[in-house]
Design a protein that fits this description.
This protein is about 60% helix and about 0% strand. The model has no long low-confidence stretch (mean pLDDT about 80).
Length: about 150
Amino acid sequence: MHGGMTREQAPAYSTGLSFRTDFRVYPQQEVEDTRPDPPTAYRSGRLPGTHQRPTNSMILAVYIMGVATVLLSVWAACAFARQRGALPRALSAQLLGEAVIGVGTLAFAWGAHSGSLTHWSPEFQSALRVTMFAATSLTTAHLVFTIRNL
């Protein structure tokens, strides 16, 4: 029944779509999943989602750039801290927050490269991330409020 009418009496509506009413189950062709399991990928040194191993020069470049970034942030923070005024102190704090993120990023890079990341508890990883995000968000807010008050 359609609104008090039989199927034959109901007006014909067409959506232009055809629906398959054959609900037979067809066998699926088995496809081997060649993607590595993430812990295996990290332990084996393969790049996630690929079968390539990062070269030693690539890993070394990541560590050199990471350490250089952290050292530059700390050096600039110390240089600003020696200046008088609220703005240089706020910039110093902001740069120290950036250094915290750099250290955290280096820690995760080392953990992934060495294979120890799979042994870090979710609580430890979350605490490290919260520390990184808190450092940058608090120092950014401090810088914004300092600039507004100038």
